[in-house]
Amino acid sequence: MDKNDFISYWVESANRDYQTMLNLYQSKDYHWSLFIGHLVIEKLIKTIYVKNINENPPRTHD
Asked: Which of 4, 13, 34, 36 has its CB surrounded by the most CB atoms within 10 Å?
């Protein structure tokens, strides 16, 4: 996969999760909505990482 493929992957995945987050919020499942929201932010940060560093982010949370 090249840089644009990685960027597309993370953005599309974040968009799907964002819709899930909104659905959970509308159903008043706030706890899970917040959890999915944090995943959306993490995926968008990975998108920025790929854009600026030109490689897929490391698989660690350190």
From this structure: 36
